[in-house]
Amino acid sequence: MVQERTLPVFQTAAAQISREEGLMLYEDMVLGRFFEDKCAEMYYRGKMFGFVHLYNGQEAVSTGFIKCLRESEDYVCSTYRDHVHALSCGVPAREVMSELFGKETGCSRGRGGSMHLFSQKYNLLGGFAFIGEGIPVATGAAFQTKYRREVNQDESSDQVTIAFFGDGTTNNGQFFECLNMAALWKLPIIFVVENNKWAIGMAHERASSQLEIYKKASVFGMPGYEVDGMDVLAVRSIAQEAVARARANEGPTLVECLTYRFRGHSLADPDELRSKAEKDVWLARDPIKKLAAHMLEQNLATQDELKAIEKKIQGVVEDAVKFALESPEPNPNDLYKYVFAEDE
Protein backbone atom coordinates (compact mmCIF):
# COMPACT_ATOMS: atom_id res chain seq x y z
CA MET A 1 0.00 0.00 0.00
CA VAL A 2 1.57 3.28 -1.12
CA GLN A 3 1.43 5.92 1.58
CA GLU A 4 0.15 9.38 0.66
CA ARG A 5 2.61 12.25 1.02
CA THR A 6 1.35 15.70 1.96
CA LEU A 7 3.70 18.54 1.11
CA PRO A 8 4.02 21.70 3.17
CA VAL A 9 2.00 24.44 1.50
CA PHE A 10 4.03 26.69 -0.81
CA GLN A 11 2.14 29.35 -2.70
CA THR A 12 3.98 29.72 -5.99
CA ALA A 13 1.85 32.70 -6.98
CA ALA A 14 3.05 34.54 -3.87
CA ALA A 15 6.74 33.83 -4.52
CA GLN A 16 8.92 36.93 -4.47
CA ILE A 17 10.92 36.66 -7.66
CA SER A 18 12.13 39.32 -10.07
CA ARG A 19 11.80 39.21 -13.83
CA GLU A 20 15.58 38.75 -14.17
CA GLU A 21 15.62 35.86 -11.69
CA GLY A 22 12.69 34.18 -13.41
CA LEU A 23 14.29 34.40 -16.85
CA MET A 24 17.57 33.09 -15.46
CA LEU A 25 15.86 30.10 -13.85
CA TYR A 26 13.83 29.38 -16.98
CA GLU A 27 16.90 29.49 -19.22
CA ASP A 28 18.85 27.15 -16.97
CA MET A 29 16.02 24.62 -16.83
CA VAL A 30 15.46 24.75 -20.59
CA LEU A 31 19.20 24.23 -21.13
CA GLY A 32 19.07 21.10 -19.00
CA ARG A 33 16.02 19.71 -20.79
CA PHE A 34 17.19 20.45 -24.34
CA PHE A 35 20.68 19.16 -23.59
CA GLU A 36 19.35 15.85 -22.30
CA ASP A 37 16.96 15.47 -25.23
CA LYS A 38 19.91 15.92 -27.59
CA CYS A 39 21.90 13.34 -25.63
CA ALA A 40 19.08 10.83 -26.18
CA GLU A 41 19.11 11.60 -29.90
CA MET A 42 22.89 11.18 -30.15
CA TYR A 43 22.79 7.95 -28.14
CA TYR A 44 20.15 6.35 -30.31
CA ARG A 45 22.02 7.48 -33.43
CA GLY A 46 25.09 5.60 -32.21
CA LYS A 47 27.17 8.71 -31.54
CA MET A 48 27.32 8.28 -27.77
CA PHE A 49 28.18 5.11 -25.90
CA GLY A 50 28.10 3.54 -22.45
CA PHE A 51 25.53 4.20 -19.76
CA VAL A 52 23.76 7.55 -20.08
CA HIS A 53 21.37 8.60 -17.31
CA LEU A 54 19.18 11.56 -18.18
CA TYR A 55 17.71 14.19 -15.86
CA ASN A 56 14.46 15.06 -17.68
CA GLY A 57 11.81 16.06 -15.15
CA GLN A 58 14.18 16.86 -12.29
CA GLU A 59 15.43 20.23 -13.58
CA ALA A 60 13.79 22.23 -10.78
CA VAL A 61 16.06 20.57 -8.23
CA SER A 62 19.35 21.33 -9.99
CA THR A 63 18.36 24.88 -10.94
CA GLY A 64 16.65 25.61 -7.63
CA PHE A 65 19.70 24.72 -5.57
CA ILE A 66 22.77 25.39 -7.67
CA LYS A 67 21.61 28.82 -8.83
CA CYS A 68 21.58 29.87 -5.15
CA LEU A 69 25.32 29.20 -4.92
CA ARG A 70 28.28 31.40 -5.77
CA GLU A 71 29.53 30.11 -9.11
CA SER A 72 33.09 28.74 -9.06
CA GLU A 73 33.33 29.31 -5.28
CA ASP A 74 30.88 26.91 -3.66
CA TYR A 75 31.10 23.14 -4.22
CA VAL A 76 28.79 20.59 -5.83
CA CYS A 77 29.00 16.80 -5.67
CA SER A 78 26.80 14.92 -8.13
CA THR A 79 25.78 11.37 -9.01
CA TYR A 80 25.81 9.39 -12.24
CA ARG A 81 22.88 11.61 -13.37
CA ASP A 82 25.22 14.59 -13.52
CA HIS A 83 24.94 16.39 -16.88
CA VAL A 84 22.44 19.00 -15.74
CA HIS A 85 24.20 19.59 -12.42
CA ALA A 86 27.33 20.41 -14.42
CA LEU A 87 25.44 22.80 -16.69
CA SER A 88 23.83 24.56 -13.72
CA CYS A 89 27.28 24.95 -12.15
CA GLY A 90 28.36 26.86 -15.25
CA VAL A 91 30.36 24.18 -17.06
CA PRO A 92 29.98 25.11 -20.76
CA ALA A 93 27.65 22.89 -22.79
CA ARG A 94 30.51 22.35 -25.26
CA GLU A 95 32.69 20.79 -22.55
CA VAL A 96 29.93 18.59 -21.17
CA MET A 97 28.89 17.31 -24.60
CA SER A 98 32.50 16.69 -25.62
CA GLU A 99 32.99 14.63 -22.49
CA LEU A 100 29.98 12.50 -23.38
CA PHE A 101 31.57 11.92 -26.79
CA GLY A 102 34.87 10.95 -25.11
CA LYS A 103 36.78 13.85 -26.64
CA GLU A 104 39.92 15.62 -25.43
CA THR A 105 38.00 18.89 -25.14
CA GLY A 106 35.61 17.41 -22.59
CA CYS A 107 35.55 18.70 -19.01
CA SER A 108 37.29 15.48 -17.90
CA ARG A 109 39.45 15.36 -21.06
CA GLY A 110 37.40 12.47 -22.40
CA ARG A 111 38.51 10.19 -19.55
CA GLY A 112 35.31 10.27 -17.52
CA GLY A 113 32.32 10.11 -19.82
CA SER A 114 28.72 10.54 -18.78
CA MET A 115 29.03 9.42 -15.16
CA HIS A 116 32.31 11.12 -14.24
CA LEU A 117 32.01 14.80 -15.12
CA PHE A 118 34.44 17.02 -13.24
CA SER A 119 35.46 20.66 -13.35
CA GLN A 120 38.05 22.25 -11.12
CA LYS A 121 37.21 25.71 -12.49
CA TYR A 122 33.54 25.45 -11.50
CA ASN A 123 34.09 23.41 -8.31
CA LEU A 124 32.12 20.46 -9.62
CA LEU A 125 33.71 17.74 -7.52
CA GLY A 126 32.53 14.94 -9.76
CA GLY A 127 29.84 12.64 -10.94
CA PHE A 128 30.04 9.20 -9.32
CA ALA A 129 29.02 5.87 -10.78
CA PHE A 130 28.22 4.14 -7.50
CA ILE A 131 25.50 5.47 -5.23
CA GLY A 132 26.69 7.27 -2.13
CA GLU A 133 30.25 7.78 -3.40
CA GLY A 134 29.91 11.52 -3.63
CA ILE A 135 28.56 12.06 -0.11
CA PRO A 136 31.91 11.48 1.70
CA VAL A 137 33.70 13.63 -0.90
CA ALA A 138 31.23 16.46 -0.34
CA THR A 139 31.57 16.04 3.43
CA GLY A 140 35.34 16.35 3.06
CA ALA A 141 34.98 19.52 1.01
CA ALA A 142 32.75 21.03 3.68
CA PHE A 143 35.23 19.97 6.36
CA GLN A 144 38.11 21.79 4.67
CA THR A 145 36.01 24.96 4.52
CA LYS A 146 35.31 24.67 8.24
CA TYR A 147 38.98 23.90 8.97
CA ARG A 148 40.24 26.91 7.02
CA ARG A 149 37.82 29.19 8.84
CA GLU A 150 38.32 27.93 12.40
CA VAL A 151 41.87 26.53 12.46
CA ASN A 152 43.55 28.76 9.87
CA GLN A 153 41.48 31.76 10.98
CA ASP A 154 40.50 32.49 7.37
CA GLU A 155 37.34 34.57 7.66
CA SER A 156 36.84 34.45 3.87
CA SER A 157 36.34 30.69 4.05
CA ASP A 158 32.54 30.50 3.95
CA GLN A 159 31.95 28.20 0.98
CA VAL A 160 28.88 25.99 0.93
CA THR A 161 28.87 22.42 -0.37
CA ILE A 162 25.88 20.59 -1.83
CA ALA A 163 25.73 16.80 -2.11
CA PHE A 164 23.07 15.47 -4.49
CA PHE A 165 21.90 11.84 -4.32
CA GLY A 166 18.83 9.71 -4.88
CA ASP A 167 16.32 8.06 -2.59
CA GLY A 168 18.01 4.65 -2.93
CA THR A 169 21.22 6.04 -1.46
CA THR A 170 19.56 7.00 1.82
CA ASN A 171 19.51 3.38 2.98
CA ASN A 172 23.29 3.09 2.62
CA GLY A 173 26.01 3.53 5.21
CA GLN A 174 27.72 6.58 3.71
CA PHE A 175 24.52 8.56 4.08
CA PHE A 176 24.17 7.92 7.82
CA GLU A 177 27.88 8.20 8.63
CA CYS A 178 28.32 11.50 6.81
CA LEU A 179 25.16 13.07 8.22
CA ASN A 180 26.46 12.15 11.66
CA MET A 181 29.85 13.75 11.06
CA ALA A 182 28.35 16.83 9.42
CA ALA A 183 26.03 17.41 12.37
CA LEU A 184 28.74 16.68 14.92
CA TRP A 185 31.13 19.20 13.36
CA LYS A 186 28.46 21.67 12.15
CA LEU A 187 29.75 21.49 8.58
CA PRO A 188 28.53 23.95 5.90
CA ILE A 189 26.86 21.31 3.74
CA ILE A 190 23.42 20.65 2.30
CA PHE A 191 22.37 17.07 1.64
CA VAL A 192 19.85 17.08 -1.22
CA VAL A 193 17.80 13.93 -1.81
CA GLU A 194 16.38 13.77 -5.33
CA ASN A 195 13.56 11.38 -4.50
CA ASN A 196 12.25 10.34 -7.92
CA LYS A 197 10.49 7.34 -6.35
CA TRP A 198 12.58 4.72 -8.12
CA ALA A 199 16.07 3.39 -7.36
CA ILE A 200 16.71 1.91 -10.82
CA GLY A 201 13.81 -0.56 -10.76
CA MET A 202 13.08 -0.61 -7.04
CA ALA A 203 10.11 1.47 -5.92
CA HIS A 204 10.90 3.66 -2.92
CA GLU A 205 7.88 2.29 -1.02
CA ARG A 206 9.34 -1.21 -1.17
CA ALA A 207 12.87 -0.30 -0.10
CA SER A 208 12.66 1.97 2.92
CA SER A 209 11.07 1.50 6.33
CA GLN A 210 10.86 5.30 6.66
CA LEU A 211 9.33 6.70 3.48
CA GLU A 212 9.69 10.31 4.54
CA ILE A 213 13.45 10.65 4.10
CA TYR A 214 13.67 14.19 5.44
CA LYS A 215 12.64 12.87 8.87
CA LYS A 216 15.94 10.98 9.10
CA ALA A 217 17.60 14.34 9.78
CA SER A 218 16.03 14.41 13.25
CA VAL A 219 18.22 11.52 14.36
CA PHE A 220 21.26 13.75 13.90
CA GLY A 221 19.72 16.92 15.28
CA MET A 222 19.78 18.75 11.97
CA PRO A 223 16.91 20.47 10.14
CA GLY A 224 15.12 18.29 7.60
CA TYR A 225 12.70 19.57 4.98
CA GLU A 226 10.45 18.09 2.31
CA VAL A 227 9.78 20.18 -0.78
CA ASP A 228 7.93 19.89 -4.08
CA GLY A 229 10.79 19.05 -6.42
CA MET A 230 8.65 19.88 -9.45
CA ASP A 231 8.36 23.55 -8.43
CA VAL A 232 11.61 25.47 -8.92
CA LEU A 233 10.40 28.40 -6.82
CA ALA A 234 9.59 26.12 -3.89
CA VAL A 235 12.99 24.45 -4.21
CA ARG A 236 14.74 27.82 -4.52
CA SER A 237 13.00 29.09 -1.39
CA ILE A 238 14.22 26.28 0.84
CA ALA A 239 17.62 26.28 -0.87
CA GLN A 240 18.18 29.95 -0.05
CA GLU A 241 17.40 29.23 3.58
CA ALA A 242 19.74 26.23 3.74
CA VAL A 243 22.57 28.07 1.96
CA ALA A 244 22.28 31.06 4.29
CA ARG A 245 22.33 28.72 7.27
CA ALA A 246 25.45 26.92 6.07
CA ARG A 247 27.24 30.14 5.19
CA ALA A 248 26.49 31.55 8.64
CA ASN A 249 28.25 28.55 10.23
CA GLU A 250 24.98 27.13 11.56
CA GLY A 251 25.52 23.62 10.24
CA PRO A 252 24.08 21.14 7.73
CA THR A 253 20.58 20.68 6.34
CA LEU A 254 18.83 17.68 4.76
CA VAL A 255 16.30 18.48 2.02
CA GLU A 256 14.13 15.86 0.34
CA CYS A 257 12.89 16.96 -3.09
CA LEU A 258 9.92 14.95 -4.35
CA THR A 259 10.54 14.74 -8.07
CA TYR A 260 10.31 12.32 -10.99
CA ARG A 261 12.44 11.28 -13.94
CA PHE A 262 10.51 11.35 -17.20
CA ARG A 263 12.72 8.74 -18.88
CA GLY A 264 13.96 5.32 -17.81
CA HIS A 265 16.80 4.85 -15.36
CA SER A 266 19.22 5.05 -18.27
CA LEU A 267 18.85 5.13 -22.03
CA ALA A 268 19.34 1.34 -21.97
CA ASP A 269 16.28 0.96 -19.71
CA PRO A 270 13.02 0.06 -21.52
CA ASP A 271 11.16 1.62 -18.57
CA GLU A 272 8.55 -1.10 -18.29
CA LEU A 273 8.26 -1.23 -14.49
CA ARG A 274 6.52 2.11 -13.95
CA SER A 275 2.85 2.30 -14.86
CA LYS A 276 1.57 4.67 -17.52
CA ALA A 277 -0.87 6.13 -15.01
CA GLU A 278 1.96 7.00 -12.62
CA LYS A 279 4.05 8.57 -15.36
CA ASP A 280 1.12 10.60 -16.67
CA VAL A 281 0.48 12.10 -13.24
CA TRP A 282 4.04 13.34 -12.99
CA LEU A 283 4.34 14.43 -16.63
CA ALA A 284 1.41 16.77 -15.99
CA ARG A 285 3.55 18.48 -13.34
CA ASP A 286 6.41 19.36 -15.70
CA PRO A 287 8.56 21.90 -13.78
CA ILE A 288 9.45 23.91 -16.89
CA LYS A 289 5.83 24.34 -17.92
CA LYS A 290 4.96 25.27 -14.32
CA LEU A 291 7.56 28.04 -14.22
CA ALA A 292 6.55 29.30 -17.67
CA ALA A 293 2.91 29.52 -16.56
CA HIS A 294 3.92 31.44 -13.44
CA MET A 295 6.05 33.87 -15.44
CA LEU A 296 3.18 34.57 -17.83
CA GLU A 297 0.56 34.88 -15.08
CA GLN A 298 2.68 37.34 -13.11
CA ASN A 299 3.63 39.35 -16.21
CA LEU A 300 7.29 38.58 -15.65
CA ALA A 301 7.74 37.50 -19.26
CA THR A 302 5.88 37.21 -22.54
CA GLN A 303 5.37 34.08 -24.60
CA ASP A 304 7.68 35.55 -27.25
CA GLU A 305 10.44 36.06 -24.68
CA LEU A 306 10.19 32.48 -23.48
CA LYS A 307 10.24 31.24 -27.07
CA ALA A 308 13.33 33.37 -27.70
CA ILE A 309 15.10 31.71 -24.79
CA GLU A 310 14.21 28.28 -26.15
CA LYS A 311 15.53 29.23 -29.59
CA LYS A 312 18.74 30.55 -28.06
CA ILE A 313 19.28 27.37 -26.04
CA GLN A 314 18.56 25.19 -29.07
CA GLY A 315 21.44 26.98 -30.77
CA VAL A 316 23.71 26.44 -27.76
CA VAL A 317 22.98 22.70 -27.77
CA GLU A 318 23.44 22.34 -31.53
CA ASP A 319 26.74 24.21 -31.23
CA ALA A 320 27.83 21.87 -28.44
CA VAL A 321 27.20 18.82 -30.63
CA LYS A 322 29.07 20.33 -33.57
CA PHE A 323 31.98 21.23 -31.31
CA ALA A 324 32.07 17.73 -29.83
CA LEU A 325 31.95 15.98 -33.20
CA GLU A 326 34.80 18.13 -34.53
CA SER A 327 36.98 17.79 -31.40
CA PRO A 328 39.99 15.46 -31.32
CA GLU A 329 40.08 12.09 -29.62
CA PRO A 330 42.46 11.74 -26.65
CA ASN A 331 46.01 10.86 -27.68
CA PRO A 332 46.82 7.21 -26.79
CA ASN A 333 50.29 8.39 -25.74
CA ASP A 334 48.62 10.33 -22.94
CA LEU A 335 47.11 7.20 -21.40
CA TYR A 336 48.71 7.84 -18.01
CA LYS A 337 48.32 11.61 -18.05
CA TYR A 338 46.15 13.09 -15.27
CA VAL A 339 46.67 10.02 -13.09
CA PHE A 340 49.18 11.79 -10.84
CA ALA A 341 49.63 15.49 -10.10
CA GLU A 342 52.20 17.10 -12.35
CA ASP A 343 54.76 19.73 -11.36
CA GLU A 344 53.83 23.26 -12.34
Automatic annotation (TrEMBL):
Entry-linked Gene3D superfamilies: 3.40.50.970
EC annotation from Swiss-Prot or TrEMBL: 1.2.4.1
Coiled coil residues, start to end: none
Taxon lineage: Bacteria, Bacillati, Cyanobacteriota, Cyanophyceae, Oscillatoriophycideae
Record field: catalytic activity: N(6)-[(R)-lipoyl]-L-lysyl-[protein] + pyruvate + H(+) = N(6)-[(R)-S(8)-acetyldihydrolipoyl]-L-lysyl-[protein] + CO2
Protein name as it appears in the record: Pyruvate dehydrogenase E1 component subunit alpha
Keyword match Oxidoreductase: yes
Gene behind this protein: pdhA
Pfam families in UniProt: E1_dh (PF00676)
Xref: SUPFAM superfamilies: Thiamin diphosphate-binding fold (THDP-binding)
Residue ranges occupied by any Dehydrogenase E1 component domain in the UniProt entry: 28-332
Stored NCBIfam families: PDH_E1_alph_y
InterPro entries per UniProt: DH_E1, PDH_E1_Alpha_Subunit, Pyrv_DH_E1_asu_subgrp-y, THDP-binding
Subunit structure: Heterodimer of an alpha and a beta chain.
